[in-house]
Amino acid sequence: MPNLPDVVLWSIPAFVLLTVVEAVSYRFHPDEDEQGYSGKDTATSLGMGLGSLFFDAGWRVPVALAYSALYELTPLRVPVLWWTLPLMLLGQDFLYYWSHRGHHVIRILWASHVVHHSSRRYNLSTALRQPWTGTATTWIFYLPMVLAGVHPAALAFCSSVSLVYQFWIHTERIGTLPRPVEFLLNTPSHHRVHHASQGGYLDRNFGGILIVFDRLFGTFTPETTRPVYGLTKNLDTYNPLRVATHEYAAIGRDLARAAGWGDRVRHLTKGPGWQPATTDHRPEGSPA
After folding, report:
1. What is the distance between the alpha carbons of residues 109 and 1, in angstroms, rounded to a whole number?
2. Which of 63, 88, 89, 171 is the 20 to 30 Å CA partner of 252?
3. Cα separation, 113 vs 133, whole angstroms
4. 157 CB burial (10 A radius; 0-12, 13-18, 19+)
């Protein structure tokens, strides 16, 4: 197959430049309704992003081996051509929707994804606040593409394109865009809803590049009131290690005091807010 560029690597200078530009814009054009930047929060987001690059490099080895083994087993092959690549991107975006949705409603997956929602600010640096176990918890959702004959390198390229696209939607500096754009694509307005902690906004707008899957599957909510960002129970730390692991630790505590194996399984597979009827305990960082 043809060599495909590492779009994330090539985009890093643009990430840095745009983040600096946005931060400076708050100094010259402040908005009292917008959160803007804070030094500690931004440092935590950057630390999480750098950590994710390091840990993902390790997670990718076993994932690449699994993908490659499955790719060799399937007789199907999808060539990388000018007309198949858009179809691959569409397929990846469809599976991303279900992966993202699953990471909000299955607690063991939420334990990874909660990192990305842990900031009470919403700016371009928030896009860099990535989990350290992301690859380990998302790879299984993309197995259908590999089994359909998509080369693992092509899948990696599509995932990178999605990640780069989603960088620019983490901003309050852009309002709503023309109606056709808002109808079809994931935009800053749609993604602000996704990062909000209000009840009516929770677990909505899971799309990556497209917002049409949310419209099709009933998870779309437009931005009508100003979002309040973060978790329903926010963290009181900027320590990257605790940000990365706090929900795993909460799950461990719940498993240790669970009454039986049934509750232990439910602690892992039910939603982040689930608790046995006999307790009012709610896990730290629960979105609901």
Report:
1. 33
2. 63
3. 8
4. buried
113 in a structural domain: yes
When pLDDT is cut at 50, 70 and 90, the band that residue 33 belongs to is confident
Question: How many domains does the chain contain in total?
Answer: 1
User: Residue 208: which residues within 8 A CB-CB, separation 6 or more?
Assistant: 92, 93, 96, 97, 100, 162, 165, 166, 186
The encoded tokens of residue 171 equal 């901003």
Residues 6+ apart with CB under 8 A from 153: 1, 4
pLDDT tens digits, residue range 106-143?
A: 999 999 999 999 999 999 999 999 999 999 999 999 99
The Cα–Cα gap between 204 and 217 comes to 11
* 142 within a domain of the structure (yes/no): yes
Cβ atoms < 10 Å from Cβ of 51: 18
Q: Residue 253: inside a domain, yes or no?
A: no
Chain centroid, CA 146 distance in Å: 21
Q: Is 210 left (phi over 0), alpha (psi -120 to 50) or beta?
A: beta
* Count of residues in the chain: 288
Tens digit of each residue's pLDDT (9 = 90 or more) over 184-241: 999 999 999 999 999 899 999 999 999 999 999 999 999 999 999 999 999 999 999 9
